[in-house]
């Protein structure tokens, strides 16, 4: 068993859970965002992803599994569909929450708190949970001899392939998932700020801008990562994908800071 890989997974899981807690506490103490906006941000992710989109995607992928393996064109089309639905589901949830439950919470800090709750639940529950499953697979499969299992030949082949994949995984690869959560958190906060402009400025185009940005960010991260992986290997592909996450995070930081200054200017102009 590769104990460095096990340790890497353990660090990643801890980061996925504790990082959003730290961000939420900072947003609460430094910006004064209320628990209500943080809670609604988390609820919006739960409803738009965990309770609706994710189960639908899993069912669809089960029935489309053969077509996805057989046709690269269909696979890339599916990537676009996944990216578009992610944008539509999550940004629509943000829109509804700011329209109804948070209609009295439409300040910049409220959008930041909402995004922290939204991205925080994704990190702690969904991504952290998947990392935990990855750790379990490493521990279980590393000590398993597929030839001794009472399985069909095709099932033994699948287990053998899974063991080979683990053996080829660099010990630091899981840490990229932790790094990605930082970038994803920035993106979630920025998109929340953008959706809020729908109500501040009274223009629906801000909602569609958030949907489009979300879709492009997701799609480009996957496409660039897969293309580089095909040309240079798994490790290079993973690093390329995280490069796109870094770019998205930097752009998101710029968006967040811009609208903070914009709110300050509007407040100053409204003062007597």
From TrEMBL:
The chain crosses the membrane at residues 6-27, 39-64, 76-97, 124-144, 182-199, 206-224, 236-259. Keywords: Membrane, Transmembrane, Transmembrane helix. It comes from Pseudomyxococcus hansupus. This is Putative membrane protein. InterPro entries: YhfC (IPR011397).
């Amino acid at each position: 068993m590769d104990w460095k890989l096990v340790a890497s997974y353990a660090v990643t899981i801890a980061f996925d859970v504790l990082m959003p807690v730290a961000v939420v506490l900072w947003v609460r103490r430094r910006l004064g965002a209320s628990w209500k906006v943080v809670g609604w941000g988390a609820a919006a992710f739960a409803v738009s992803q965990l309770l609706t989109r994710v189960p639908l995607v899993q069912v669809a992928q089960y029935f489309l599994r053969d077509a996805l393996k057989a046709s690269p064109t269909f696979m890339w089309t599916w990537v676009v569909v996944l990216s578009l639905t992610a944008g539509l589901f999550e940004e629509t949830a943000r829109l509804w929450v700011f329209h109804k439950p948070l209609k009295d919470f439409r300040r910049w800090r409220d959008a930041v708190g909402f995004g922290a709750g939204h991205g925080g639940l994704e990190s702690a529950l969904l991504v952290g949970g998947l990392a935990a499953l990855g750790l379990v697979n490493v521990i279980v499969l590393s000590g398993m001899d597929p030839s001794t299992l009472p399985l069909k030949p095709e099932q033994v082949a699948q287990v053998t392939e899974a063991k080979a994949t683990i053996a080829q995984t660099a010990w630091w690869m899981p840490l990229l998932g932790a790094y990605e959560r930082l970038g994803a958190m920035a993106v979630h906060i920025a998109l929340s700020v953008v959706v809020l402009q729908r109500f501040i400025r009274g223009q629906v185009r801000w909602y569609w801008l958030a949907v489009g940005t979300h879709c492009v960010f997701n799609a480009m991260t996957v496409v660039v990562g897969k293309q580089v992986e095909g040309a240079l290997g798994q490790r290079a592909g993973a690093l390329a994908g995280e490069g796109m996450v870094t770019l998205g995070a930097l752009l998101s930081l710029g968006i967040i800071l811009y609208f903070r200054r914009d709110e300050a200017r509007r407040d100053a102009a409204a003062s007597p």
